[in-house]
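> @MW can you paste both from yesterday?
MW: sure, first one:
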Amino acid sequence: MKKNGLHIDDSGNKCWFKDDKFHRCDGPAIDTADGCKQWYVDGIKHRLDGPAVEWSDGSTAWFKDGDFLGNDDKGLWRLWDLLTNEQRNNINLLMRLLKVQK
């Protein structure tokens, strides 16, 4: 039987699955008890509106379609370079990216 939906282990780590792959569209697919969060779509590390990995110490890593873009601010600017004009003109996406910069 394939894993689907939320699974919580004995340590309190939360993982969301779709067909046995990490997957969640409305938040991190992995949310560990120690505060690390990771975003996945269909088993691929990916996030457009912020870093795909947020460690508990505040450091970040940026991924798009599984490709590592960089850590902290460097990753944000590499993501910006990869966005389409339509994505760059999306006010909701821009507001979420600006919020990450605070």
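MW: second:
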Amino acid sequence: MNIKFRIKKRKPLTIIEVMSPYVRLVKDVNRHVLKRKNIYVGSCPWCGKSSLIVYAKNEVFKCHNPDCNKGGNKYNFLMHYKGMSYNEAVDVIKNPRPTKTGD
């Protein structure tokens, strides 16, 4: 008997899934609704001002406060915010741990 098993590959986390536990992100629907479909805004975790913009389609973030000016991709966010090395950030994003729901 020939039995085949399918192993379901996990998709890597998106930048929104990576940043959401640490930053409250809100979809930007106020300006240019047709052009800005996948843009989220929030408070920057480093400077505290509401100047953080996350471009979901491009998988990048940028703080537009001139004093802060941090930006990058999902790996850079984990490296800056959590103090991880690049290899640790890649491991977290490629192999997300399941989250507990309820008891």
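> thanks! The longest strand covers residues 39-42.
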